[in-house]
Specification:
Elements: H1 2-15, E1 41-46, E2 62-64, E3 72-76, E4 79-89, E5 101-106, E6 110-118, E7 133-144, E8 150-159
Length: about 160
């Protein structure tokens, strides 16, 4: 009986395969878009994320032009990336004051969704003429193939 129990235990142990969950990929390091790529458009800055040395101006982490189909520029793991525009949802378009919209950009291994909602205005009051830009709160969701989506809070300024 003892021998049968030992053999049965050995067979069960040999036949048992432990499933080890895959290690989560570390979050991709987000860099800042090169200044020579920036022009009129939507400049998105992730909250609490700076560029360069301490004390330097906050840079732009994501940039897209004002045209509906303009690509998205970003830097991940020190590599500049340009993603094609995939979809637009909402009645507003880039730069509409008080507007809300969502734009998605993608390639074969990366998908980014940016949701825009009206934010606190940084336009100087009493300037006598309207500002040429609008401010937004933004939510940026980064989805790399094979990894869990990562959502970041950001601010955006769209215009010239």
């Amino acid at each position: 009986m003892l021998r049968t129990t030992a053999i049965l235990a050995a067979v069960l142990a040999f036949g048992h395969h432990e499933v080890v969950p895959a290690q989560a990929q570390p979050a991709a390091k987000i860099g800042c878009v090169s200044a020579n790529k920036l022009e009129c458009g939507c400049h998105v800055r992730v909250k609490n994320l700076t560029c360069g040395s301490a004390g330097s101006a906050r840079g732009v982490h994501f940039f897209t032009g004002l045209e509906p189909k303009d690509p998205l520029h970003l830097v991940l793991e020190n590599e500049p990336i340009e993603l094609s525009h995939a979809t637009h949802r909402g009645k507003s378009v880039k730069g509409d004051s008080d507007g809300r919209w969502v734009d998605e950009y993608s390639n074969e291994s990366l998908r980014i969704r940016i949701s825009y909602a009206p934010g606190r205005s940084t336009c100087p009051e009493g300037k006598g003429e309207p500002c040429e830009y609008s401010d937004y709160n933004a939510e940026v969701t980064i989805k790399r193939i094979g990894s869990t989506p990562r959502t970041l809070r950001a601010t955006a300024t769209c215009g010239c």
